[in-house]
Amino acid sequence: MSWMLDKKVTRELPEEWKGIVPTEVFLQEAERMVEEVEKKNIVLRIMGGLGVAMHCKEFRDFAMRLGRIGTGVVKGQEYSDIDFVSYRKHRNNIRDFFSDMGYAKRRATLSSAASERQIYYHPQGWFYVDVFYDKLLVANHPVDFRGRLELDCPTIPVTDMLLEKIQMWEAFSPKDLKDCLVLLKAHKVEEKSEKESIDASYLAKLFARDWGFWYTATTNLKKIKGFVSEMNKLGPEAEIDASRFGKIDREEITEKIEELLERIDREPKSFKWKMRSRVGTTKRWYNPVEREDTVAGFGIWEAILPKE
Asked: Rounded to an integer, what distance in angstroms lies between the CA atom of residue 42 and that of residue 100?
């Protein structure tokens, strides 16, 4: 698969890492890249699970109690890649930036072209980088970041982080559940856009225009609430030790979910929403997307990991 890269990359890790790239390296590298492109007036923001970790640094202990570790492709490694989003107008500048940094670019495929995504590999094969432009199209409900990236730095806004997770219908995983729990634990729910708050008003207005998005997001929020209330029974399925999840934590997260659901429900719905609601789930309401388990990771890791 190395022919997919525009230059050769060999996976070379420092001996003391024992085959696992430390989480701190992902955090430091991601933040450093955002700082470097900012000097060039390029907007680049961290998203995904790494963005959650960075935005919730003070709640690292809570994430550890949930078992939000060792979920990467490499066994025992917390992360596999760094996810970024930028604006399409910066596309060529981003390409030049990673080239100057010594990264190898994965050649475009039908999947990456259609999803407005570019993939780059660390010069020593430590990880790969995913860069999306304007929208997250690899999603059951595309998330539009236009006009949103200036609201926070170095990550996307926390509201969009939650949105990135609860838009999933087909592949909502224990990892995504844990990220949602951390986000809800670490942030307030408010009626405005602030760096440390989930903007309930923004979500409510967004869902009021799109019944499908509303249905998926509210269903996921209700499922998360149900999981929290039944954690003693359901915890093992998500590899969560319920005994490490206190009563105050459960009540706090449940209260925030209820607050979000109430605000979403209260928002007047559009005519389009009401018409689509009559059809309900008898017609598919989400976009099917390619996933790593259905297309072998798009050959992403195969390009640099040696075969067993």
From this structure: 15
In contact, 197 and 152? CB cutoff 8 Å? no
The radius of gyration computed from the CA coordinates of the chain, to the nearest angstrom, equals 20
Given a contact cutoff of 8 angstroms between Cβ atoms, the answer to whether 174 and 68 are in contact is no
Split into its structural domains, the chain has a count of 1
DSSP string for 161-201: HHHHHHT-SS---HHHHHHHHHHHHHSEEESS--TTEEEHH
In-domain check, residue 305 = no
Beta bridge partners of 22: none
In a domain, 304, yes or no: no
- Sequence length of the chain is 308
Q: Write the single-letter amino acid at 128.
A: Y
| Beta strand residue intervals within the chain, DSSP E | 44-47, 81-86, 104-105, 117-121, 128-133, 135-136, 143-144, 188-190, 197-199
Number of Cβ atoms within 10 Å of the Cβ of 266: 10
Q: Which residue segment(s) compose the domain that 294 sits in?
A: 2-299
Q: Give tens-digit pLDDT for 36-85.
A: 999 999 999 999 999 999 999 999 999 989 887 655 567 788 888 999 99
Cβ partners under 8 Å of residue 246, min gap 6: none
Q: Quick check: is 308 in a domain?
A: no
Cα separation, 105 vs 98, whole angstroms: 8
Q: Is residue 27 part of a domain?
A: yes
| 226 has pLDDT over 70 | yes
> What's the pTM?
0.89
